[in-house]
């Protein structure tokens, strides 16, 4: 079908229902079967239930349930404007920062999903949004968005091309999750002693005897740059629960000293958190190599290095910090009122069971190989996402011919 034959429609022409979420606060129930989700739960096309996502009871769900079904697409409309997810029968109550619309059966749902992830729609809702501190886009604006619609066959082919790239990205993400789980399981089996007594060759050790902890650069906002500067790993570079967050990187062209350097493959730990839920503070990440071999780290981060005499690796240290007994000791040194801060003693005073060199190195060989494969998959996903995002507007504008 030629692009000239595509017909212009409004979003309201291809949906049977379009509405927003709950205005108000439901009664939360920590044992509830349903989750109260908002725009920040819509991530990379999926509904993501987080550890701190609130729950509600069946009774509360029945009071606020919406007409969500297998034709439903969810969209962030308040604060998290533009976040998109396909509804896949998750047990959830929709909050006011998201809306939903049900695509009619005569239109390909995946095609509509790509319409609203396309820059044309995303730019449109940013332009039409109201508010200063928190932006909000109206349902009226969403309904009136115009776009060219090909026949169903062409819709399906376009969606198939883009979905194949998303499927490859998801496969890599699942592989990375599995590799991380394997390393965590191996650590518990190999490097956590069972029972009350230490096995022969093991030693009860204190962090400060084998590790050096240092705080990062207290930087000035004027030194932040968009790119072409020193990569700066910061609080937003650490995932809740541990791991490196690629979307958090900053770049800095201000002054810093050699003590603020951190190398690829070294360990960083979050030392600050809003509130006292301990979702981030004390959790570790290993600096990936795709930002270069050297960067700097901010004052909201500690760098933890093994002393020259220590045979423990950053991969060992990373998994050590995830162990509950060690983590409880670390966050025991955190305090503050509104902002929770981790004292450097939290990475000096904890005790742990240190395995023999041969065992530690055997674990490191496996964990490091897994981590490097994870990094490679992240790089591949970036390439796939860039290709998808390059093809998306071209396909939506008919600039690439779809052969029948």
Summary keywords:
alpha+beta, Helix Hairpins, 404 residues, five-stranded mixed beta sheet, four-stranded antiparallel beta sheet, single chain, Adenine-n6-DNA-methyltransferase TaqI, Chain A, domain 2, 9 helices, 3 domains
Describe this structure in words.
The model has no long low-confidence stretch (mean pLDDT 94). With 404 residues, the chain is an alpha+beta fold. The longest helix is centred in the last third of the chain and has 40 residues, at 357-396. It starts with 6 loop residues before the first strand and ends in an 8-residue tail after the last helix. It has three domains: 3-150, Adenine-n6-DNA-methyltransferase TaqI, Chain A, domain 2, CATH 3.90.220; 151-194 and 358-404, Helix Hairpins; 203-354, DNA methylase specificity domains (Adenine-n6-DNA-methyltransferase TaqI, Chain A, domain 2, Alpha-Beta Complex), CATH 3.90.220. The chain has helices spanning 58-64, 109-117, 119-128, 139-143, 152-190, 207-210, 314-321, 324-331, 357-396, and strands spanning 7-10, 15-20, 34-37, 42-43, 46-47, 55-56, 72-76, 84-86, 92-94, 98-103, 146-149, 203-206, 211-215, 224-225, 230-233, 250-252, 261-263, 267-270, 272-274, 284-286, 294-297, 301-306, 334-335, 339-342, 351-354. The chain is elongated and about 75 Å long. The strands form eight sheets. Strands 14-16-15-21-17 form a five-stranded mixed sheet, with no helix packed on it.
């Amino acid at each position: 079908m030629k692009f000239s034959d595509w017909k212009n429609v409004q979003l309201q022409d291809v949906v049977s229902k379009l509405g927003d979420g709950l205005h108000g606060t439901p009664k939360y129930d920590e044992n509830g079967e349903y989750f109260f989700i908002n725009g920040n739960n819509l991530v990379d096309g999926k509904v993501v239930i987080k550890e701190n996502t609130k729950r509600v009871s069946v009774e509360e769900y029945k009071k606020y349930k919406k007409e969500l079904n297998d034709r439903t697409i969810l969209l962030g409309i308040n604060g998290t404007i533009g976040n998109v997810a396909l509804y896949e029968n998750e047990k959830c109550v929709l909050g006011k920062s998201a809306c939903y619309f049900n695509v009619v059966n005569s239109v390909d749902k995946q095609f509509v999903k790509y319409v609203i992830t396309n820059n044309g729609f995303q730019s449109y809702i940013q332009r039409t949004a109201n508010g200063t501190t928190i932006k909000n886009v109206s349902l009226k604006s969403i309904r009136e968005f115009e776009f060219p619609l090909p026949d169903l066959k062409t819709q399906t082919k376009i969606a198939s091309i883009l979905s194949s790239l998303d499927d490859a990205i998801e496969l890599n993400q699942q592989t990375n999750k599995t590799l991380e789980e394997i390393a965590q399981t191996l650590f518990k089996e190999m490097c956590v002693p069972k029972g009350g007594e230490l096995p022969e060759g093991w030693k009860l050790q204190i962090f400060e005897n084998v590790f050096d902890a240092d705080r990062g650069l207290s930087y000035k906002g004027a030194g932040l740059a968009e790119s072409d500067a020193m990569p700066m790993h910061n609080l937003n570079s650490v995932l809740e629960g541990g791991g490196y967050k690629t979307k958090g990187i900053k770049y800095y062209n201000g002054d810093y000293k050699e003590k603020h350097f951190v190398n690829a493959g070294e360990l960083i730990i979050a030392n600050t958190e809003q509130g006292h839920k301990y979702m981030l503070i004390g959790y570790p990440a290993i600096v990936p190599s795709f930002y270069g071999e050297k960067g700097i780290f901010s004052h909201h981060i500690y760098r933890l290095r093994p002393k020259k005499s220590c045979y423990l690796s950053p991969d060992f240290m990373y998994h050590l910090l995830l162990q509950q007994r060690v983590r409880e000791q670390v966050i025991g040194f955190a305090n503050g009122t509104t902002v929770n801060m981790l004292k450097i003693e939290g990475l000096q005073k904890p005790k742990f069971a240190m395995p023999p060199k041969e065992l530690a190195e055997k674990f490191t060989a496996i964990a490091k190989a897994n981590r490097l494969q994870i990094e490679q998959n992240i790089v591949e996903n970036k390439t796939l996402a860039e290709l998808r995002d390059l093809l998306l507007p071209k396909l939506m504008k008919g600039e690439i011919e779809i052969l029948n």
